[in-house]
Amino acid sequence: MQLIVAVDRNWAIGKGSRLLVRIPEDQRFFREMTMGRVVVYGRKTLSGFPGGVPLAGRTNIVLSRDAKYTLQGAVAAHSEEELFEVLSGYRSEDIFVIGGESVYRMLYPYCETAHVTWIDYSYEADKYFPNLEKEEGWVLTGDSDEQTYFNLEYYFYRYENLKPVPMKA
Q1: First-to-last CA distance in the chain?
Q2: Sign of the dihedral defined by the CA atoms of residues 142, 125, 107, 47, in that order
Q3: Does residue 82 register a pLDDT over 70?
Q4: What is the pLDDT of residue 38?
Q5: What confidence score (pLDDT) does residue 121 get?
Q6: CATH 1.20.120.680: does it fit domain 2-161?
Q7: Is the pLDDT confidence value at 138 over 80?
Q8: How far, in Å, CA of 47 to CA of 145, rounded?
Q9: Domain locations in the chain as residue ranges
Q10: Which segments of 18-94 are extended strands (E)?
């Protein structure tokens, strides 16, 4: 399983149900990485999507604690156990965790690879991703040259988890 996230220098990912910033090249990277794959995210993250609808061209799995929650165009999972049962039908390398904060925190230990867009700026935020620089077992294995969007500097980093927790089936 993989994850993809954009963070600021404090590893912040959002405020409310909104991203901190929209960088076209980061959005293009996200589309390229996830198109045709399985994306896993929470109900609150879905509410921040344009029109509040699942992402086209991907298998969407939405986590919600509400046992009655259903959604056209997506599979709803209502617990970690139910999620792993659904995910067992897919190849691990085709699964991308895309947010939000509670879903990342629940699933990042199971991920083998993290694709991180690191933005050299500090935003006002209330949602954070674990700082992989300080997380035991995570190592930086790839980075890009400095990228710029207007006056923002950012980098594409790849981290590998040396000891991912096996998914429960």
Answers
A1: 14
A2: negative
A3: yes
A4: 98
A5: 98
A6: no
A7: yes
A8: 33
A9: 2-161
A10: 18-19, 38-42, 59-63, 75-77
